[in-house]
Amino acid sequence: MNLDNDLKRLATAAATNWPEIALSGRLDAAIRDLYRTHLPFPPSWTPDERDEFIEEHAEMDAQRLVSRFDDLIDVVIDGVGHQYGCQPSQDDASSTIAQARQDAVYELEASIEYLSDDLAQSAIHTGGRTVASMTGCSPAGRHSRRRSRHTSR
Fold first, then answer.
1. Hey, is 106 helix, strand or coil?
2. 42: phi > 0 → left, psi -120 to 50 → alpha, else beta; which?
3. 8-state DSSP, 86
4. Fewest CB atoms within 10 Å of the CB: 33, 42, 61, 115?
């Protein structure tokens, strides 16, 4: 799958089906699918770990996008009002808002790049081990083992 094509489809669907796409949960699902398809998960991650990561980040990005979409109405109308000294017609405002919403969806590309880098770093630092296997290596785990040795004397 091509990220540009997937973003374009999501941008078009989000702009033309707003607000139904958000209210129905389809926006969240589309972002989860986008992340599932385009994020390079470490091979050692279990499907549950992938799903948890996707769910957390997709939900956060969906909320951010919904907030941004709502804000764009005021931003576009105020911007046109300041620039031209009058409010835009309903048709002009609708098309400008739809375009701004499409542009906002493309910001998910930056999120995918950031998360890809984060996943690459995670793969390097865990050395092929799952995240759960690293709990014994934490400072708390070492402290716990150290304390148990001292108390057994």
1. coil
2. beta
3. S
4. 33
